[in-house]
Model the fold of this input.
Amino acid sequence: MRAAVLRIHGEAPSHGEHPDPVPSEGRSIVRVTAAPVVPLDLLCASGTSYFGAPELPYVPGVQGVGVVEQSAVVAAGTKVFFATSAGMSPGDGSFAERCAVPDADLIVLDTPVPDAEVAALGLSAVAAWMVLTWRAKLQPGERVLVLGGGGAVGQAAIGSARVLEAGRVVAVCRSDDAGRRALDAGADEVVALTDDLAGRLADATGGAVDVVVDPVFGPVATAAARLLAPGGRLVNLGGASGDEATFSSAILRSRTASILGYTNNAITTDQRRDALTAVLRHAAAGAVTVAHETVPLPDITAAWQRQSAGRTAGRLVLTLD
Done:
């Protein structure tokens, strides 16, 4: 079969032939139609991640969309979303014509949303939805601040906050392009990532926020935490701007504010399915979006290099149809 194959840690995968997945108990064979290129793919392929260096060669791709070809639990021809552990444990991922997927990681799709858009939303949208509903327990009318608002998680969080009836949604973005994506996703206002961030955030939010969605951490999270309202919650789900942030004990205590963590690895398969189903329902109505660009599988090397250099206008999605 055709696949994107990684042969050297830290380099881009290349398009070529790779053995077809072998059917086995507890796994379904899926014909892949779309697969996003996400930061976790690059981290695993670098050989320097906390999962350890994956055995080579292997096919990257930690999530995808496709059609079941062979399964003991889902009828052939069923459209599904799926996750893989490619790069984190032995085995191949979604950047191929076919993928062997654990039965428990299949989510049956019943949505008019195109496959590439489903792939662009994927687990980023699941994380955004769960952060707001499960960890932050967002209530109608509450004010939301989204850090990294131009990224996939950020855009999905903005749209999700809107459909969950947030009173105001403000986004922090590092570039003009990212700011436009955040506004397109539904942000009321965008704050640029420049000097005097805390002061400009206070102006944009009215001085306080109830929920901070934080996939970046670092100094940006430090500034955002100072705006937490009484009972406010900052939920961290990433460290794109650093692994450490500084929080004021006085602010946390005086406002009974909370600093919370989130990872998709901590939710159940039912939670993941229900979250994706909810997001796709709103995506079908145009309320939750993630800007994306489709790239044919043979162009994987150039696409990977662009992703590594940050030269993208949104999420890159490999297409295999």
Summary: Residues 26 and 103 are 6 Å apart (CA to CA). The longest strand covers residues 27-37. DSSP finds nine helices and 15 strands in the chain. The chain has a mean pLDDT of 96.
